[in-house]
Amino acid sequence: MISRIGSSRVTSIDVAQRAGVSQSTVSLVLSGKGEGRVAAATADAVRTAATELGYHPNAAARTLKSGLSHTVGLVVPDITNPVFGLVLRGAQQAATAAGYTVILVDVARGDGEESVRALRAAFVDGLLVFAIAPPAAALGPGGPPVVLMDMPATDLPSVTLDLKGGVHAAMEHLLGLGHRRIAHLRADVPTPTFVARANAWARALLDAGIDPADDLIVGSLFSHTAARVAGRDLLQRSPRPTAVLCDDDVLAAGLLLAARDLGLTVPGDVSVVGFDDMPLAEMVTPPLTTVAFDVPLFGTRAFEVLLAHIRGDADAPRSTWLATRLVIRESTAPPPTS
Amino acid sequence: MISRIGSSRVTSIDVAQRAGVSQSTVSLVLSGKGEGRVAAATADAVRTAATELGYHPNAAARTLKSGLSHTVGLVVPDITNPVFGLVLRGAQQAATAAGYTVILVDVARGDGEESVRALRAAFVDGLLVFAIAPPAAALGPGGPPVVLMDMPATDLPSVTLDLKGGVHAAMEHLLGLGHRRIAHLRADVPTPTFVARANAWARALLDAGIDPADDLIVGSLFSHTAARVAGRDLLQRSPRPTAVLCDDDVLAAGLLLAARDLGLTVPGDVSVVGFDDMPLAEMVTPPLTTVAFDVPLFGTRAFEVLLAHIRGDADAPRSTWLATRLVIRESTAPPPTS
DNA sequence: ACGTATGAATCATACGTATGAAGTCAAGGG
DNA sequence: CCCTTGACTTCATACGTATGATTCATACGT
Fold first, then answer.
1. Alpha helix stretches (DSSP H) within chain B
2. Which stretches in chain A have pLDDT values below 70?
3. Nearest nt to A14, CA vs C1'?
4. Nearest CA in chain B to A86
5. Cβ of residue B69 near strand C, that is under 7 Å?
6. B47 touches chain A (CB under 8 A)
7. Most buried pick, A174, A294, A307, B162, via CB within 10 A?
8. Can you give the pTM of this predicted structure?
């Protein structure tokens, strides 16, 4: 098979010559817009010639002419986190089906401007931005459509999780088990997502007649080592919380280590609830009770919304929610009796 | 800030008009090839005009004209695996520095052909293929440069791990602790990487005068659940192995669960060694002794090699090795005395 | 038999950039 | 005073595709 990725040497002109037609006809046939304009026999001849020569349209020329790259960018804060991998997968699946390609940009190194430059070079038709403030340069009038993920906004279309529902279910579960001192191990990142989680936690406590006091709260950077340190702090407070809602499974994993450090058992001495239901949640000891959502669907849904905006659909959705559910495993139990 | 990603409405002609020069001059100045051809004052005027208008060259036009997209593709088997995320990050860093963009393609869904089509559409200048057989359509005469990662090959440039060294160190560690029945929990994937790991394991045993018998071997699909099942099988054999070398940290995590299922302690009853030193390795109980390598550097190195081939450097490397080292944590200890 | 409607295919051009060839102008040598 | 040299600039064109405008031939109605 003689073919090239990228600079395909065989052009529509070659196909035209072989099929004995003009380049225009080739373009019409292969772009599908020849319906009713090109005779069936001619169309067949073109398609045959194209196949025989292994023709693939030149993306750069097509993009230049049409102004559409059929490429969208997905901006994530940390591709190391498997959640984003699954989001990408979901988005990629939907994109492939629609003839689009997804370019992933990881802004972990914080070099947002550089990333934007990369995207500009890649000529994206639209942008999926996950859980971070969209790069300023990506917005502005005349910019490409942007869909925010996991980050509510009033001025831009967004796809978010039903966080209130998720936290609510988790808190109801813990309250139902008899817990009262339910702490919150929160990510020290002031993004709307985590603010929403914090608010939902506080509201659930208030609704149960419990004061969401400061000594029930501890912040941590976004790593299991930081969470381990923060967790030791939290678990040494007196009175010790009997349950901890964590903003993320990775943080929950850190908390498990902290409990182990202090000789505490989970869920015997303290119950732990995570967030996101990463694969990790099943691998740690004990397996985590966690707030789950369909991660790939998140990506799929977001792409669909973006595509609607790219196409300029009048009824393209502005704000969409994705349901969450509580997965109960072995890290939660009634509080110690003493 | 009025700017667009993608279809930047302001073209080099606009800049030319504003600076009072021709489009050619703009191109010469901004592409850096005007050295000695364009007067300093003119160049300054062009650059000023470009900045004022917020000009960004149209990637599609540039690609069409030059035949270079300044984009490379990274093909990975499973972006959910954090290792690949780190590889991407390393590659992306090197790529950005060189003015390149990395497009990630995840072939997890097995739809390799579809992926290749996506890459073709994206017009890549080169391909980084991680640990899987390169898509046939990507090769063939006249194809773009390909660098294989973690997959030795004679006919294509490759960057691989010093597996023999890594396995050797792990086995020496276990043998030094007094283990004799050292089993191998292997990934049921016949890629060269895993074949190499298996061979290195067998060689180490033979060198120690131990028969790498079949009952020391168990295969598993690439997930912690599958490894858990396979691990239970392995750990119920008689005589039970006192140590297990796992092809991957995820498999090792599954084995830990299997041990727990059977009421065995790690490392008391059985020692476990993983591979890759994922973040997960520190989070499980007990933390895993594992064969580690500098993952981002792996990506960086691979991109550098690819770039050399794209540029057609005569001395572009064919085969490169990356060092590995053993990280000793808490999952290994001397075998039980009984 | 002639004008026209219709289907089929082609023409010509534009997208925005890069670049070899050609042009301009002033200074300097013969 | 003309011609060369050199330092700048610009011209013209090509990359490969998409598409509105156009041509062409055929069939139809009167």
1. 12-19, 23-30, 40-53, 59-66, 82-97, 112-122, 163-177, 192-207, 224-235, 249-261, 280-283, 295-310
2. 1-8, 109-122, 134-142, 338
3. D16
4. B80
5. no
6. no
7. A174
8. 0.82
